Amino acid sequence: LFRELNYVNGEWCSAKNSSVLSVTNPATGESLGTIPNAGEEDTQLAIQAAKSAFPDWKSRPAKDRANLLKK
13: helix, coil or strand? Predict the structure, then answer.
């Protein structure tokens, strides 16, 4: 499944500025879709979400983390 959104703090979201970038296959020039053109505000929100989630994440056993990543 190809989502044309950012995944931040457990939610799919567009860039705050609603801007997108085109993604093309460099071998064929075929258009693959668009991605959010995340700016500084989007980046800071993602960083804060990651910092908030990290203490819980690092306290989980490696097997639990692996299972979550496989989903």
Answer: strand
Using CA atoms of 48, 52, 58, 61 in order, give the dihedral in degrees to the nearest 10.
-120
pLDDT in tens, 27-45: 999 999 999 999 999 999 9
Cα 31 to Cα 45: distance, rounded to the nearest angstrom: 29
Q: pTM (2 decimals)?
A: 0.73
Picking from 47, 46, 38, the residue whose alpha carbon sits closest to that of residue 17 is 38
Q: In the structure encoding, which two tokens stand for residue 16, read together?
A: 């705050």
How many angstroms separate the CA atoms of 32 and 22, rounded?
8
